[in-house]
Amino acid sequence: MYYVYILRSIKDGKLYIGKTRNLRDRFNKHEQGQVTATKNRLPVQLVFYEAFVNKTDAGREELFYKSGFGREALQSKLLNTLK
């Protein structure tokens, strides 16, 4: 499986969008400060993820969420979570 996941920084409220094959391991790396993009924004919380069988599909969805339309879709989808 391939996972597209969204983390929110408790520190500054910003979102991080990523893709991985092992969600648990990748999240642990984020929590331990081993990911450059989030190490200065700890702590983070996992607020959303989707699972895909196909790597290409997961990559396409990750790119969508990183686009303006994708961020709008996330805001709508996670309306209460991102308040």
What does this 3D model show about the protein?
This protein is an alpha+beta fold and 83 residues long. The chain has a single domain, classed as GIY-YIG endonuclease, CATH 3.40.1440. The protein is 37% helix and 28% strand. It contains three helices and three strands, in the order E-E-H-E-H-H. It has a three-stranded antiparallel β-sheet. Strand 1 and strand 2 form a beta hairpin. Helix 2 packs across helix 3. The longest helix is centred in the last third of the chain and has 12 residues. The termini are far apart. The model has no long low-confidence stretch (mean pLDDT 96).
List the helices and strands and how they pair.
Elements: E1 2-9, E2 15-20, H1 23-31, E3 44-52, H2 55-66, H3 68-77
Antiparallel strand pairs: 1-2, 1-3
Helix pairs in contact: 2-3
Quick tags:
83 residues, alpha+beta, GIY-YIG endonuclease, 3-stranded antiparallel sheet, 37% helix, 28% strand, globular
| Domain tally | 1
Strand adjacency order, main sheet: 2-1-3
Roughly how much helix do the residues carry, as a percent range? 25-40%
Share of residues in strands: 25-35%
Can you give the mean pLDDT? 96
Principal-axes geometry comes out as globular
Quick gist of this model?
The chain has 83 residues and is an alpha+beta fold.
